[in-house]
Amino acid sequence: MAMTGEEYLESLRDGRQVVYRGEVIDVTTHPKFSVVHTIAKGYDKAIELTNAGTPVKTRSFPRSIDELRADIEEMQHLEGTQRVTRLAMLGLHTAAGRMAKEYPEYQRRIEAFVQRCDEFDLRVVPAITDAKGNRALGPLKQHDPDAYLRIVGRSEEGITISGAKLHVTNAALTHELLVMPTKQMKPGEEEWSVACAVPANAMGVVIMTAVPGAFAEDPAYYPYSSRPQHPYGFIVFDEVFVPWERVFLTGETQPTGGFAHSLGLWLRLDTAAVQADESDMLVGLAQLLAEANGSEKIPHIRDKIAEMVLDATVVRAGFEAAVATAKITPDGFCAPDELYTNMAKYFATMNMPKAYAIVQDIGGGSLLTAPMPEDLENPTTSAYLDKYMKAGSDMSGADRTRLFYAARDLAADANAGRRQVTYMHGAGGLYAQKLVARRHFNMDRAKQLARDAAGLSGKAADDSPETLDVAL
Ligand SMILES: Cc1cc2nc3c(=O)[nH]c(=O)nc-3n(C[C@H](O)[C@H](O)[C@H](O)COP(=O)(O)OP(=O)(O)OC[C@H]3O[C@@H](n4cnc5c(N)ncnc54)[C@H](O)[C@@H]3O)c2cc1C
Question: pTM above the 0.70 mark?
Answer without folding.
Answer: yes
